[in-house]
Amino acid sequence: MAGPVIEYEKGVVAEMVDFFCSKKHGTQRGELCDECAELLEYSHERLDHCRYGEDKPTCRKCPTHCYRPLMRERMRAVMRTAGPRMFFRAPLKWIRHEIRDRKKRKSLDGQ
Q1: Domain coordinates of the chain in residue numbers?
Q2: 36 closest CA partner among 12, 2, 71
Q3: Among candidates 98, 102, 101, 77, which has minimal Cα distance to 16?
Q4: What is the DSSP code (8-state) at residue 46?
Q5: What's the average model confidence in pLDDT over 85-101?
Q6: CA dihedral sign of residues 75, 81, 82, 87
Q7: Cα torsion angle, 95, 14, 77, 55, sign
Q8: From CA 16, how far away is CA 3, in angstroms rounded?
Q9: Taking the mean position of all CA atoms in its chain, how far away is CA 42?
Q10: Which of 54, 81, 87, 105 has a CA positioned 20 to 30 A from the CA of residue 11?
């Protein structure tokens, strides 16, 4: 069973994939095309099996890249599209993610 950090990450990823799919593939909010549904399912699977568990850094700062190359490229496209817009769509989630990213970055850098 996934803990609160993993569940939170799943929610953030789901929101970003939903936004990306609606903008790039023209789907309605809350609906995903087959490609985006596959990516979301894959990302949740990767999160469930993350070797860092609840100490997981943000994916951008993770020393272990667990996505297959194709899925990694798809997720990068999602992040490039949805990431900057999260500030306007879900500012509290964006702030929380940024704080967590900076804390994990410091701990990984040994500071």
Answers
A1: 4-109
A2: 71
A3: 77
A4: H
A5: 80
A6: positive
A7: positive
A8: 20
A9: 11
A10: 105
* pLDDT interval class at 101 (50, 70, 90): confident
Tokens 């850098």 belong to residue = 109
Phi and psi for 84 in degrees, rounded to 5? Answer: -65, -25
pLDDT of residue 5: 86
What the block records as the tokens of 47 is 């999160």
Give the other-Cβ count within 10 Å of 56's Cβ: 18
Instruction: Mean pLDDT check: name the lowest of 25-34, 42-51, 90-99.
Output: 90-99
Q: Could you report the per-residue pLDDT of 54-92, keeping only the tens digit for each?
A: 888 877 778 888 899 999 999 999 999 998 888 887 888
